[in-house]
Amino acid sequence: MSLSKEWKLELQAIVGEHHVIDDPALYGPYTDDFTDHYVSKPLAVVRPANTEEVSRIVRWCALNHVALVPQGGNTSLTGAASTLRPDTEILLSLRRMKGLIHVDPINNTIAVHAGTPLAEIHDMASDCGRLFPLSFAAEGNATIGGCVACNAGGVAVLRYGTTRDLVLGLEVVLADGRIWDGMQSLRKDNTGYDLKDLFIGSEGTLGIITAVVLKLMPQPQEKETAIACVATPEDALKLLSLAQGQASSALTAFELISDQPISRVRKNLPDVPVPPLDDSPWKVLLELSYEIKSTESGLEKLLELAFEKEIISDAVIAQSQVQQKQLWHVRESIPLADRAEGGSIHSDVSLPISRIPEFLKETSQLIRSAYPWIGESIYGHLGDGNIHYNFVSSTDPQLTYQHEEGIREILYSQVNRFAGSISAEHGIGQLKLEHNYQFKSDLDIELMRRIKSVFDPEQILNPGKVLRFNQ
Ligand SMILES: Cc1cc2nc3c(=O)[nH]c(=O)nc-3n(C[C@H](O)[C@H](O)[C@H](O)COP(=O)(O)OP(=O)(O)OC[C@H]3O[C@@H](n4cnc5c(N)ncnc54)[C@H](O)[C@@H]3O)c2cc1C
Fold first, then answer.
1. Of 399, 423, 428, 402, nearest to 411 (Cα)?
2. Ligand 1 pocket mutation, candidates 75, 179, 339, 349, criterion most atoms within 8 A of CB
3. 182 and 269 within one domain
4. How confident is the model over 295-306, as pLDDT tens digits?
5. Rounded Cα gap, residues 406 and 370, in angstroms
């Protein structure tokens, strides 16, 4: 089905002639996702400029029984921002709705439109001497609306929490087009159910987020960053415990990286400078940050102690901000290096931190005995218990995809066995829909279905994501 002339004119009357795109030749940035797994086939891409226009489009969709998929930067790793049923759904791009609404450095809050890219919010916060701490590799493209809709995590959760911990208020267009104004800047409000928390992490299935109020933090005056070498994940946990004892709340990031993905960065992205380190099978990228400048290096002291206790065998401490960025660049280049290798299968599992070494050992044995040809790419936010346990195959990328279901079955069964979650931060989308049904209780699913039916009884908001369509 293509967009009829009549419907096109009606949509153009709401958003303007140039913001209804129904020519597939112009779809690229909206329809092709980062994973190359999901290619949307929308009825049209519609680009509203403000909340009022979003509300009118939703009313139009409700009237004409047309489903819509809200989309921010289209950086989802789970197919959450892609259409499900070809030629029937509208892709509603929020990218035009960007910019500052209000900043209050005394209240330590900032209000922005939902389509504002994360990196631009960092700049806005920095302009008033504050920090907005949510940060990850796709921050140049990911929008704050998308981050809220996915409850994104990232590299500083250990210190500042997930998106949910950073959101104070929301404005949301509901499935009938009404605008819910929850744009509060309050730290405390005990007046019944917290409605904003329902929208956070709902992946566009309960409402369309049009504006957000966020917490700001004091800007660190100093940061220290290092990569340390450890022999095992058990040693990485010893280092984490030591760092938490020594550095306390200054510990901002603690990332575990196995040697394979680092080797792939060296091999596939030769322009990325990887520091010379010993060949231990695991590395830890850790960062301390301080609001008040200190006279001595807390990180140097910590790593010396770790060296004395034989927890680490080698380490590189960044000597400048440029070097700090270079160390982070190695970590952030891993998804691209894995993609370049071929057949990359991505996951974002969450586990009790203390059980991660045992989980990794057991799961790796199971995977290797079932799929001896596969390459592993294990890295992630160890300090939050969030591991990206990924798989690549340079010999035959297609073979990896052919066995994706079997690989995920082993991985997620293990996650379940270790009392973990199949999604720490990327959400369910299309990718993990059936696995979520497999591991959530019937009561969980029933309650989620009832919530969906209150907010979106006609199932026009991102149908088939998080919950099955028409059930
Ligand atoms: C290289 C790379 C690294 C990444 N690293 C991380 C990481 O460390 N941590 C992490 O958590 N994620 C990470 N991600 C995943 C992704 O960037 C996040 O999920 C991000 O929050 C998505 O933002 P977006 O604007 O691109 O949303 P999209 O991809 O456009 O949409 C994601 C979901 O949100 C919904 N949505 C988007 N905008 C709105 C809105 N305004 N109202 C309602 N629903 C909306 C969509 O319908 C969809 O369900 C990474 C992705 C890439 C490509």
1. 423
2. 75
3. no
4. 788 999 999 999
5. 9
pLDDT at 292: 87
Confidence at residue 235, expressed as pLDDT on a 0 to 100 scale: 98
Pocket test for ligand 1, best of 150, 198, 377 (most atoms within 8 A of CB): 150
pLDDT for residue 471 = 66
Statement to judge: residues 15 and 89 lie in one domain: yes
* Structural domain of 271: 222-328
Report the residue among 76, 82, 98, 332 best suited for mutation to probe ligand 1: largest number of ligand atoms under 8 A from its CB: 76
What's the pLDDT score for residue 69? 98
The pLDDT, as a whole number, for residue 59 is 98
110 and 134, same domain (yes or no): yes
Task: Give the end of a domain, one of 271, 302, 328.
Answer: 328
Closest Cα partner for 282 from 233, 237, 240? 233
Confidence at residue 209, expressed as pLDDT on a 0 to 100 scale: 98
In a domain, 107, yes or no: yes
- Spacing, Cα 58 to ligand 1 middle (Å): 21
How far separated are the first and last CA of the chain, in Å rounded?
24
Residue type, 440: K
- Ligand 1 mutation target, pool 50, 54, 89, 136, most atoms within 8 A of CB: 136
368: CATH: 3.30.70.2740
Ligand 1 atom nearest 71 alpha carbon: 30
Those residues of the chain that have pLDDT short of 50 are none
CA angle 354/274/335 to nearest 5° reads 60
389 with 417, same domain: the answer is yes
Distance, CA of 329 to chain centre: 17
- Ligand 1 atom having least distance to the Cα of 425: 11
Model confidence pLDDT, tens digit, residues 333-389 = 999 999 898 878 999 999 999 999 999 999 999 999 999 999 999 999 999 999 999
Q: How far is the CA of 393 from the centre of ligand 1 (A)?
A: 26
Distance from C-alpha of 284 to C-alpha of 227, rounded to nearest angstrom? 5
Q: Is 256 in the pocket of ligand 1 (CB under 6 A)?
A: no
Question: Which residue has the CA at smallest separation from atom 11 of ligand 1?
Answer: 152
Residue 459 within a domain: no
Give the pLDDT of residue 398. 84
Give the CATH number, domain containing residue 185. 3.30.465.10
Residue 317, number of CB atoms within 10 A of its CB = 17
> 431 CB less than 6 Å from ligand 1?
no
Residue 234 belongs to a domain: yes
Is residue 88 domain-shared with residue 136, that is, in the same domain? no
Whichever domain contains 260, its CATH number is 3.30.70.2190
Q: Quote helix, strand, coil % in the chain, to nearest 5.
A: 40, 20, 40
Nearest CA to ligand 1 atom 50: 138
Number of structural domains (the chain) is 4
Q: How many CB atoms lie within 10 A of CB 3?
A: 18
Task: Indicate if ligand 1 lies below 6 Å from the C-beta of 76.
Answer: yes
443 belongs to a structural domain: no
Where is the domain boundary, 200, 218, 236?
A: 218
User: How much distance in Å is there from the Cα of 32 to the middle of ligand 1?
Assistant: 14
